[in-house]
Every structure is written in structure tokens, then in C-alpha cells.
Amino acid sequence: MKNTFTRNEILSRIEEVRENNEPIIGAGCSAGIIAKCAEYGGADFIIVYSTGLSRLKGHPTTPYGDMDTNDITLQMADEISEVVDDTPIIGGICAQDPNYRDLDELIDDYLDAGYSGIINFPTIAMYGDRGDRWREMRESQGFGWTREVEMMKRAHEKDVFTIAYVWSPEDAKEMAEIPADILCPHAGGTSGGKAGYEAAPKEDAAEKVQNMIDAIGVVNEDAICVAHGGPFAEPEDTQYLYDNTDAKGFIGASSIERIPVEKAVENTVKRYKDFKI
């Protein structure tokens, strides 16, 4: 992988975006062509998720399990970096992967692959709220949210750029205390397109996002917050997000690499069918 960026270089770029009153945009990209186009479109950073492979296969966003998610993401690095020239590439890192009991080794593997930062995804938080039986069981096994927070803390201590997905005010506070460089309240699985999730109304999703941002502000009033998912599936939807929350940007995965592809291919084939022989 080439053209890696230091944490300070990424933060400087983000500060310039904010000074221009533009939204911070992270683009989930699981194939070279998508990453290449996202860079042309002006993405501030490109995020590589193992779960993106499910979107490329035409399915809803689906985790590939704890057993190999990091290996998948590490293997995806070369394809993405080959066509991305000047945009930081962030790796989706999973603390619950039992193949990587040593968190420092796991983080170093991502840096060695050439990723310029990490984001905690897949995350244990996507499996339920605190107190949920599954989360509690994983916590008791040493592979719960506490380990995830510790992983992000160690990355910060290594001066690695970090983005933290959070799913509740309690989770948000813990990631803000590290502090993660960008906090991303998650509004749930993305709706829309051929394989979208059922999402809450925008009003409810925006309230959920703002509740997490408020919790973050108690810990760090200068924290940079963006948002992701739920009913915010199209570019036009983000204006509602900005008007009704303090989010300063958006991270898209399905909304970047699934829904636009679905539309483009379907409409192009329809146009080819319009002509008569």
C-alpha cells in the first residue's frame, strides 16, 4: 500500500474541510473501482470494511463473523490502495477476532498493511444494547465492548488516526474519553435500495444521533462528530441530518457503494433496452 498519512496530516485535512464549512465525508469502499470514483468525488477518507463484500455480493450489509474479519480487511488493502492516489485509507478493525488476542499486534498489522487509521467495525455494539445477553456473554469472555475501547485507546497512544462508531450515549462517552479523533453515532442499518434495512423515521434517527452527540459533548465539547446509517441513505437525506443535529459530516457504506451501483446498473441496462432493432 502506498501514500499513507500520519494522524496529524489527516486531522489537518479535516480542519481545512471544516474551515470551508463543508461536511466531512467518509466513503466505504470494498472494490478498487468504487474507491477510485470516491476519490474523484472528493471523499475525505476511504474506509475499507470486511462487511463491504456482502454488499458487493448483492446482500444487505452482513458481518463475516469474528473468525476472519481482520484477515479479510487486511487482504483488501492492496486492491484499494492501487487506485487511490491522495486520500487516507482507513481500515475496519475488529477487536473481537480471536485470531488476534494481542491488540498491539493487531493494530500494527493494519499499519504494516498500509492503512492510515482504523475504525471499530465490525463492532460488538451492533449486536445489541448494553445488558443484551449476547454482549454480556462476549464481555465475560474478554471479547466485549471493554476490549474494543482498549483497542482504540492503544491506537490513540500509538498516534494512529481513529474513528469510533458508537451506538448509545454510554458507548459514546467511553470513546470520547480516549479521545477518538472522530466520533460517529450510528443510526442503524442503512435503508433504501434493493437490500436495505427497515429504518426509523428521520426524526427519531436524528434524535438518537443527537443524544449521542450530547453525551460526547459532556466529555469533550470540541469532539468532531459525524453520523452514519439508518434513514440517511441518499445525499439529500444528510441535509436533514445537518439541520437537526450537530453532526459535521457523514460516513456512508451502503449509501456509497451499494445504492448508487444498484441505480446505475439498473438504469443503464434499461436505457440499452430502449433501442429497437
From TrEMBL:
Domain TIM-barrel: 9-274
Molecular function terms, GO-annotated: catalytic activity
SUPFAM superfamilies: Phosphoenolpyruvate/pyruvate domain
InterPro entries, sorted: Aldolase_TIM, Pyrv/PenolPyrv_kinase-like_dom, TIM-br_IGPS-like, Tobamovirus_resist_UPF0261
Protein name (Swiss-Prot/TrEMBL): TIM-barrel domain-containing protein
Naturally occurring in which organism (per UniProt): candidate division MSBL1 archaeon SCGC-AAA259D14
